[in-house]
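Hey team,

Sharing the DUF4166 domain-containing protein run so nobody has to redo it. Sequence (221 residues) first:
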Amino acid sequence: MTSARLSGLGATPSAHIRLLDDRRFHALLPDEDWGRLPLATWRRFSKRVADGDSVVYVGVVDEVFFSDIGWWLAQAVRMIGGPLPTGRDVGVPMIVSVTEDAATGGQTWTRICARKRGFPQVIHSAKRFAGPTGLEEYVGFGISMALRIAVEGEALTFRSAGYGLQLGRLWVPLPQWLTPGDLTVTHRDLGAGAFRFTLDVIHPRYGALIHQSAVFRETVS
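Structure output:
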């Protein structure tokens, strides 16, 4: 499991890539909470590459759970770009690419999850440092969710704080019955250059719908 920084269409780390100080995530948390993060997590969310450059992380999926409702939900939202995992395979590679977006000042995220059979699943989303919480994630067809970040037990968590539809300059909140429930992404440092990425979707009525976890190891500082 490795990480690499890619410049443009290059396939290998390049010596001319410049890392910039990034306070965008820090600005969303009190200094006291930010200071409770492990040093490795602090570094990952405080570095920024130049516009158009990318950071790529490669890991392995080690846990997957779907309830019956969760599985059907994941299939249904493929109509708006497939923002949720759809496969049950473990022990398969997951690749996460984070690209700086000069147009919005945010980030473009691409997650590729391999399958033991068939083509891999590709999930695209865009993070923008805007909205009522200071952070939004767009998943396709104008659908987005506001995110709140927090430090919980030395892990950095991203929790959904409302879903909406972007219509031109207008953001229209979606009613609760049209949303999947509470979505949480957790970034937990494991030490020795490794960290765990976890996604959970929990519905207030139906309980846990989806859980996916992958372990990444960063070898390029």
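The first strand starts at residue 3 and ends at 6.

Ping me if you want the raw files.
A.
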